[in-house]
Amino acid sequence: MPSGDRRTKPPSQDGSPTGASRRCIRRVYDPPVAPRVLPAVVFTAGASSLATEICATRLLAPYFGQSTVVWANVIGLILIYLSVGYWLGGRIADRHPTPRALGVILVIAALCTAVLPFIARPFLNLALQGFAAVSVGTVVGSFLATLLLFSVPVTLLGMASPFALRLALTDIDRAGRTSGRLSSLATVGAIIGTFGSALVLIPGVGTQRTLLSAALLVALVSIPLLMRPALIAVGVIVVLLILPTGLVKETQGTLAERDTAYQFIQVAREPGGRIVMRFDDGIADQSVYRRDTALTGGEWDMPLVVPPLLSRPLHRVLVIGNAGGTTARALATEYPGIDIDAVELDPVVTQLARQYMGLNAIPNLQVITADGREYLETSAQRYDLIVVDAYRTELIPFYLATQEFFSLVHAHLNPGGAIALNVERVPGNDQLVQAIAGTVATEFPQVWVWPALHFNELVVGLSDRIAVTSLAQRLAALPENVSVLEPLVVAQAFVAPPSPDPLTDDRAPVEWLTDRAILAYIAGGGTLNEHLLPTAP
Question: Please, what CATH class does the domain formed by 22-242 belong to?
Fold first, then answer.
């Protein structure tokens, strides 16, 4: 018959495809899949992929911190891996549209996710060695290598959704409805994976077991698709879940480690008996404790020079960023009888400080669990001195460094009061200190800067100006144990002018100021050694 005489079956009255075109959606050799399996697959894959993303940041935090740069790298690369997975999943599903092929993908994804916290540790320990040697190549290389480890499981999890959609499409009339339902389930799974891991699992069982839990869910959902290998994977993951987790960072003298909703915390005892508290990457000590003295010679002693500069007696102090209570302890010891309110965001930090760092022994101390700015927004209490010790070089809460924040602080000071800020810096680069001091100076009549240490400077905003020539006279009233700081402050402190471009809630590029300075310092061969103040015990 000539080709022009061939007849094709016309579409149906309502325009829907014919039965022949419907059969093209699913080939006759496709084995049937239980109707509830595929929705469970896309839900679990969505939940596990986002849980893995959250765990990736927590796995990196003890070594690289949780700055926006780290988050951007993790989120960006995870999205790339998922995109590759969607593309590969669709191609493979068209070539091998069988439940068994999907089962293989899920089992491999489960096993790869399960081993992540174990195989990542050598790369992360390499980062510690890089920090110790101040080697930018080692640090960056191990960071990228660790992120690349997540490429395999996340890509495989991304393949699940298009593969499940291919198996679920049996009728083109229902293609839109089926696609929408599976996409919705994948998104709901991602939402639950995000909140469940960040708010429940990581604080409850830690990062390692959160990853293992995500892997276990993927292995369980693959059982109907590939029974024997899936059951083996389930058994392996259950064994890994039962094993003790051990220390996250192998540091000598470790007393406690905690993964909280906010950060990784480590408390360790050093050979000389000093107890230190460290957060995330642990480059700097956040708090230190000695039983026999409250003075440290570190940045926690810097605010002790501020009370003589006030135009009123010191009765009530607020510390924002209490951590282990080192600053509060020093103030309470050198200025006895004062009342101290200490704000700390993470309740686990306070718990560990009470257990290991003598927090309960500080007289007249009230610890408030809250964000520092939130507390000021909701409190009517006024103070003679407000100390802000919430900045870390690699992670500065920008909203605690803006013009709006310093205006709020000023409103909570009694007449003649002051704000004192511990601002970390990179030696040779004062851009961050200048930005913060200049911003404070837009809200306070006078701002002093004391470059006390290589890595820390004190910024003081006074409600009442003092004459530059009267600085030495005022500091003569320092307590005896702190009087050794008087000549240093007189020789080094200077008045900072207001900034023409202050940091604001709308624009506060603190990460740009800090990250570039840190990388330049490391690349230039800088060291992490610090010369202590003469108040050192």
Answer: mainly alpha
Backbone angles phi, psi at 91, to 5 degrees: -65, -45
3-state SS class at 406: helix
d(CA 439, CA 400): 11
Q: At 367, which helix (H) or strand (E)?
A: strand 365-369
Query: The tokens of 158 are what?
Result: 């991304």
Place of tokens 């600053």: 327
pTM score: 0.74
Q: Are strands 383-388 and 264-269 parallel, antiparallel or unpaired?
A: unpaired
- 482: closest CA among 344, 295, 322, 315? 295
Rounded Cα–Cα distance for residues 398 and 270 (Å): 32
Spell out the CATH class of 302-523.
alpha beta
CB neighbour class for 155 (10 Å; exposed up to 12, middle 13-18, buried from 19): buried
Q: Are 258 and 346 in contact (CB under 8 A)?
A: no
Contact predicate 199/148, CB 8 Å? no
Tabulate helix, strand, coil % of the chain (nearest 5).
Answer: 55, 15, 30
- Please tell me the distance from the alpha carbon of residue 167 to that of residue 99, in angstroms, as a whole number: 8
Structure tokens at 33: 């899949």
Q: 497 is written with which tokens? A: 């002018």
> Reduced to 3 states, what is the DSSP secondary structure of residue 319?
strand
CB atoms within 10 A of CB 291: 10
Q: What string of pLDDT tens digits covers the 537 residues of the chain?
A: 444 444 444 444 444 444 444 445 555 445 566 678 999 999 999 999 999 999 988 887 766 666 666 778 788 889 999 999 999 999 999 999 999 999 999 999 999 999 988 887 776 666 555 544 444 444 455 566 667 788 999 999 999 999 999 998 877 878 888 899 999 999 999 999 999 998 889 888 888 899 999 999 999 999 999 999 999 999 999 999 988 776 555 567 889 988 887 888 999 999 888 999 998 766 678 899 999 999 999 999 999 999 999 999 999 999 999 999 999 999 999 999 999 999 999 999 999 999 999 999 999 999 999 999 999 999 999 999 999 999 876 678 889 999 999 999 999 999 999 999 999 887 777 888 999 999 999 999 999 999 999 889 999 999 999 999 999 999 999 999 999 999 999 999 999 999 999 999 998 888 777 766 555 555 555 555 668 999 998
Taking residue 450's Cβ as centre, other Cβ atoms within 10 Å add up to: 22
Beta bridge partners of 422: 458
Question: How do the domains of the chain map onto residue ranges?
Answer: 22-242, 302-523
What stretches of 425-455 adopt beta strand conformation (E)?
446-450
DSSP 8-state class, residue 395:
B
